[in-house]
Amino acid sequence: MTGLEAALATAPLKLAGNKLVPLITSEFASIAGVTKDLSELQDILGEITRCLSAIRDRDIDSCPSFLWVKKLKDVAYDIVDLLDDVHLDAEKYKTGSDYDGNHGIGHYFCSKPKSFLLRCKMAYKVKGIKVRFAAIVKQRSDINTTLHNLPLDYYVMSRNRGTAELSLLSGVEESKIPRRDKEKDEIICKIVECSAGDNGWIVSIVGLGGSGKTTLAKHICHDNKVKQHFNDTIFRIHVSQEFHMEKLISKLFEAITKQKSENHARQHMVEKISKKLSGKKFLLVLDDAWHEDKDDWEQFMLHINSGAPGSKILLTTRNQKVAGAVKSTHIFHLTFLSDSESWNLFLQCSGWAEEDLGSEFIWVGKEIVKRCGGVPLAIKTLGSVLHDKKDINTWKAIKESNLWNVESINERVFASLKLSYFHLADNLKQCFTFCSIFPKGYKIIKSHLIAQWMAPGFINPMNKGDPEDIGSDYFGSLVKVGFLQDSFQIWYNDQLVYKMHDLIHDLTQLVLQDELVTSVPNTITTNCTPRCRYLSLTSSAEKVNKSLFDKVRALYVYGGDTSFDKSIESSFYIRSVILQSTVVGQFSILKSEYLGYLEICHISFTEFPEAISGCWNLQALHVMYCGGFMRLPESIGKLKRLRTLELLICNDFESLPQSIGDCRELYW
Questions:
Q1: Shared domain check, 215 and 118
Q2: Pick from 147, 57, 60, 158: which is nearest to 422 by CA?
Q3: In DSSP terms, which residues pair with 444 in a beta bridge?
Q4: Which residue numbers delimit the NB-ARC domain (predicted)?
Q5: How many angstroms separate the CA atoms of 643 and 623, rounded?
Q6: Residue 623 contacts residue 646 (beta carbons within 8 Å)
């Protein structure tokens, strides 16, 4: 998977390069005596980045000549960590009470014995990194020669590819696909038929992942004929691969009642669902169903059988057996797009008009489209990535990539997604892979995600620009290429919720590999623990020790009773924490002074510990749906970098402390 390693490494390398430029000319570099080291490091960064660009379109995992790429990525992360150490320590000093604004970084590093030790440590680490870089450059073989000698049929299949799923698709909303329009009309005819009872009330759409099932269902639900027929009584739930009756009832309750399911007993939710549906003609969309057990489906259907005659269920699935298990009366199989339809969709997504392209671009473009196998998601992502990229070498690199040398359509779709990631702008790569920390189907709030990107420094404001505005541009770019997609018209606190297609989510996990951990391993090997940078735990009851948490940058915890080693409290690297529906005992992790983003949701507690005032780097604090939460500590005013404070549906909250006025960067 070296091609993915190369693509992923370019992002931290660019981030490191951006931080190196001001450091080289800084007073600190001169005083610390590392100006020469930093300059040489900058040269090596440039050379390695050029080499990585040469292999990013290839899958060359088994070639020993390219094992240096993984080592390179680890070194790149060490550089970023080191530069973070310097910058954050300087920022900490600037936000302190003894900073008068008249002294530079050099004064800080020379004014205290502790700072002198840090200066020496910095110089030592920079020299060590330079040696490691030089060793990698020396050991690697000539990239151009190696690539030239690769046989045409050389490729390696991914050994770690996850099972692909589908959640919310694909951003063909603005594209006109005649084939899908015809299929939509046929399905609508069956949905608005007036047949009642068990016979004829379930319509299923079956198709390959990325073929447009969810998008088609969305278009059907927004069709005026359907909306009028069901009097806008249309609901949708995302079923997902895991069939869990309790979760499905909770999702159904939330969709129908527009209330949160937490703190409601199952029987109460069942009765409420039945009451809300009683006598009403409704359309329920069951999106992305995988479960094949007909008995389980029969039990679920009992909860929605109180509707009026003419009520319908629209189910989307990849598996014909699922459609059979729910006793579908009508099953529609989505067909692949023709060559001409695929080419038209590609042009729409890329923003190019055929008359503006030369003959060579047209030929190469059509060859790329053919490799996508008529699957909209594959065509859309590649077309969007090539938007405004009128460089024939880039187009040829995609066409000639050995990633296409696979047999099945499923594998070709995934190959197109990997190539789209390879050609994503470097400043977007880390923002994209950050989303791997969320579970599939997670509702992504735009402003929240941008703040999470800001916490680890993924957004680098230039010319004193607003980081939120830059983050909004990044977010829009990911939406444009289809890596983030609009939800089913779900609004959250006046903000549109976004989601990530499950195939795209699989891509984030494939890219990160062992940098993402989703369950606490029983045994931890020395080789893998330093690579964990994203920790995502759902319903976990395990203890997280320091060896696993040592380099974690972002933490997501949902449910369960996860505990953390006390030594984690002083973690330097943790930047973002989300705690949802879990226990208060995990608040001990909030003592990390470098924490930049904190979100607490559906947790019952009274107040934050005073220790939160030690999180001097905290920029965003969100407290949502927290029963019993009454107050913030008076010491909250010490959070000089706090930009966002959200207290949503905290009905027991009393008032803000007076010290909140000391948070001068806070947005109101």
A1: no
A2: 57
A3: 498
A4: 181-348
A5: 14
A6: yes
The residue type at 585: G
Return the closest-CA partner of residue 23 out of 10, 6, 5, 36. 36
Q: How many domains does the chain have?
A: 2
| pLDDT tens-digit readout, 520-550 | 876 555 444 557 889 999 888 777 777 777 7
* Domain shared by 190 and 97, yes or no: no
What's the mean pLDDT in 632-641?
A: 89
Give the predicted TM-score (pTM) of the model. 0.80
The CA–CA distances, whole Å, from 147 to 3, 23, 58, 66, 366 equal 12, 35, 9, 10, 25
pLDDT per position as a tens digit, 205-255: 999 888 889 888 988 988 889 999 998 889 988 888 878 888 899 889 988
Contact 93, 108 (CB under 8 A): yes
CB 56 within 8 A of CB 147: no
Q: Which pair of structure tokens corresponds to residue 393?
A: 């070498």
Q: What is the DSSP code string of 161-202?
A: PPPP---S----TTS--HHHHHHHHHHHHHHT----SSTT-E
Instruction: Indicate if 299 and 234 belong to the same structural domain.
Output: yes
Instruction: Give CA–CA dist 455/466, Å, rounded.
Output: 14
Structural domain that includes position 234: 178-333
Are the CB atoms for 643 and 667 separated by under 8 Å? yes
